[in-house]
């Protein structure tokens, strides 16, 4: 904001970037507190380690789409917490606040995209006949929703952070809220459809694809499914929290409660990335990640994605036996 601020000393400043802790009170800073160093360093370490592991697993198992989504998400998370560490030294600097705000707002959208990429492959491993929608439909639908959410959050964050008047600031916040609401709705629908498919796969066991029976019975596969569910739930909780935080505004008590932020933002996303990394799909699919892949219709338009995937699956299942 460009409004002038009169300090207790009588000095007038026109830009918060002119402030330091020596001359300005903390209650006019970007945060009304100094971000905790230990907590933010911890999250930097978590995301940094997971980033390296994602690169290793992604290259080793050739899970390219999943790896790209996770790497983008983790890099943004890491940069966001670096921004918070920089704000500890000077909570008035706009660039550091912008680094924190934009990165931590849009980062989880990439993590959600990685989760969405897994569902279609999971359906192929059980049998597309058990699903209400085709595997490719889930991916296209939810990745598209995620992209919409990402664009809205990025645009809203940029507008709110660069606003020169209250009206523009409020508009930016509202756009960010719309993006986060879209993410919450998308995750909720995703969880409901996952639950519906899980129930169908449980109820109609005789219709499961026998080609992947060994894979489905393995411990790592079951752990992978649980980890994916936990990651989805934690990202959902975080997104609901951020909607409430932004709805009240940057100057609200909720937005300036660091312990709550650490619990519902940092911890939730840390749990998610640990699950998505430690229970990596490349490991869980036991070399059959590509077999669970699917394609859009061929140029000739003669084959559906499910038949392509099932043919590949049957030819590659020998690796499991």
UniProtKB/TrEMBL annotation:
InterPro entries per record: MFS_trans_sf (IPR036259), RTA1 (IPR007568)
Keywords for the protein's UniProt record, in alphabetical order: Membrane, Transmembrane, Transmembrane helix
Residue stretches of biased makeup (Polar residues): 308-321
Entry's transmembrane regions: 37-57, 64-85, 97-119, 140-163, 175-199, 219-241, 261-279
Annotated membrane topology: Multi-pass membrane protein
GO CC term (a single one): plasma membrane
SUPFAM superfamilies: MFS general substrate transporter
Pfam family, one: RTA1
Region (Disordered), start-end ranges: 300-321
Species name: Pseudovirgaria hyperparasitica
Keyword Transmembrane helix: yes
Name used for this protein in its record: Putative RTA1 domain protein
Subcellular location as annotated: Membrane
């Amino acid at each position: 904001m460009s409004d002038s601020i009169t300090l207790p000393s009588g000095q007038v400043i026109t830009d918060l970037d002119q402030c330091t802790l020596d001359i300005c009170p903390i209650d006019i800073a970007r945060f009304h507190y100094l971000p905790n160093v230990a907590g933010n360093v911890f999250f930097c370490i978590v995301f940094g380690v997971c980033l390296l592991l994602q690169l290793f697993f992604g290259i080793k198992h050739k899970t390219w789409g999943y790896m790209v989504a996770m790497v983008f998400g983790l890099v943004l998370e890491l940069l966001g917490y670096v921004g918070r560490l920089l704000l500890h030294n000077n909570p008035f600097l706009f660039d550091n606040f912008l680094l924190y705000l934009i990165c931590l707002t849009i980062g989880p959208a990439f993590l959600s995209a990685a989760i969405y990429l897994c569902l279609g492959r999971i359906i192929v491993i059980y049998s597309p006949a058990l699903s209400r929608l085709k595997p490719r439909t889930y991916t296209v639908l939810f990745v598209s929703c995620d992209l919409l959410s990402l664009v809205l959050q990025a645009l809203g964050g940029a507008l709110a952070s660069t606003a020169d008047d209250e009206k523009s600031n409020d508009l930016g916040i509202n756009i960010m809220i719309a993006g986060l609401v879209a993410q919450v709705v998308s995750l909720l629908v995703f969880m409901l459809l996952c639950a519906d498919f899980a129930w169908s796969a449980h109820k109609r066991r005789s219709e499961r694809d026998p080609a992947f029976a060994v894979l489905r019975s393995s411990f790592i596969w079951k752990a992978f499914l649980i980890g994916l569910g936990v990651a989805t739930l934690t990202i959902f909780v975080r997104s609901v929290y951020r909607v409430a935080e932004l709805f009240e505004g940057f100057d609200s008590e909720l937005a300036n409660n660091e312990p709550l932020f650490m619990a519902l933002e940092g911890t939730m996303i840390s749990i998610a990335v640990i699950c998505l990394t430690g229970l990596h799909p490349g490991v869980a699919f036991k070399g059959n990640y590509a077999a669970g892949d699917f394609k859009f219709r061929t140029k000739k338009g003669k084959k559906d994605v499910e038949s392509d995937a099932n043919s590949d699956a049957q030819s590659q299942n020998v690796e499991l036996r």
